[in-house]
Amino acid sequence: MNVYSLTLLTCLWMFAQHAHATSDSVISSQVAPGFLLAVIPDTQNMLDYENQRGEGFVLDGVQQFQQQMDTLASWQQRTGRPLAFVVGVGDVWQHQSKVVDEAHVERGVGAIENPIFNFPDRVSQRVLDEEIPAAIEGYRKLAAAGIPFGVLPGNHDYDAMWSAAGFPPDLTIPRSELKRLPEQIGMIHVGGLDNFRSAFGSNGEFFRDKPWYVSSFDGGSSSAQVFSAAGYQFLHLALEMQPSDAVVAWALEVVDQHEGMPTIVSTHDYLNTDGIRLPNPILDLAQADPEGHNSAEDIWKELISQRDEIFLVLCGHQHGQGRRVDLNSNGYEVHQVLANYQSRGQSALDAGATRSAGSGRPPGVGDGWFRIMDFHLESDQPYIEVKTYSSHYQAYASELKDYARWYQPQEQPQLSESAYRARDTFRLALPDFRQRFGPPSFFAKP
């Protein structure tokens, strides 16, 4: 054999070895355990135009928000693991642009004067000029990174928020003695989603012509997305706050159109911090307007428990953390998880803010906290590892020695430190996931 032939054979052998290694690498990457999903809780206080240095605040909340979105958009570069999907659970911005929306006026669901809330003073053009554009700028970072996402409206994202007729405040009670009960301070109601659709509508820049944006209701006030990860295709439903019968019917139809697909439902208000399906008593839309809204318990009974595809529910709104697991109508487990960090203000204290003289609380900003849910579906006992991360502190909750000291007194003072920490770092077992959805597609036998 001459030198040329030997060299050619050597090159062919090296090429074959490289191709084999590349093939092994692709397979290894394909079957690598798990995937990541991020949950962005209420960001309203970071985007609040009043929580900026130009308004005399100690820091720029909008910079904290943009840092959070930068962190999510660059998660793969930072950690080596991409985000398969991101969920925004509502209350994206803070203020409203109307006193009452026209549709509610036409239906006779009006507003009353309430000096305790004085909602007309909250109406501002600056939500349109500053807060919503900042939100769009942040979500553009995810879009530019090619990360699919779903966002739903919280009460602050509605065009109007007002004190509901039929629930007058009791002005005979001294302000210092008032409790957060509708019979004492009144009931809050909301309406109109033009502002929300201007940012996150089905025909807007984020979702128009996206193959993973598969359905919407009322122009995107509720929506559905699909994403692929870890050998499965997932369906995500982003439902408006305490949704109506029509939204529930739409959601059932979407699930049925994606039969057998593991499904995550996100909505703004669903659990309280005790893990009970109860609203904030002064923001009970189903009580203020039963024609237009369903309670969380109604949503459980009429939607979530009725479809075996739904295995996870995510929500925000109520301050703190909570979770529960229930069996649906066929005996399958459904995890329901609350996270909302908007009242956290250690970053403001670090910047020189002082605590409220009355409550002792810091000014709530958010401190850049969000959830990372690490899905491990490759084994016969799938599970989700849940961690909580701050883009401001560049650390997980479990890594900060002062974490409980900073936040426990205002969120869960009755818990021990270890129990409190466990609310932000925990595991959700999925014992029936394989039974419901089969093996990952790349493990399935031909």
Characteristics:
446 residues, alpha/beta, Purple Acid Phosphatase, chain A, domain 2, 7-stranded mixed sheet, 15 helices, globular, disordered N terminus
Summarize the entry for a quick read.
This protein is α/β, with parallel strands linked by helices and 446 residues long. It has helices spanning 3-30, 44-47, 61-73, 75-79, 102-107, 126-144, 182-185, 194-200, 245-257, 285-288, 296-302, 346-350, 403-411, 417-421, 433-437; strands spanning 35-40, 83-88, 149-151, 160-163, 188-191, 213-217, 222-229, 232-239, 263-267, 310-315, 320-327, 333-340, 369-376, 383-390, 395-396, 426-429.
What does this structure look like?
The protein is an alpha/beta fold and 446 residues long. 30% of the residues lie in helices and 21% in strands. The chain is built from 15 helices and 16 strands. The strands form 3 sheets. Strands 1, 2, 3, 13, 14, 15 and 16 form a 7-stranded mixed β-sheet that branches. It has a 7-stranded mixed β-sheet with strand order 6-7-8-9-10-12-11, with helices on one face. The model is unreliable at 1-32 (pLDDT under 50).
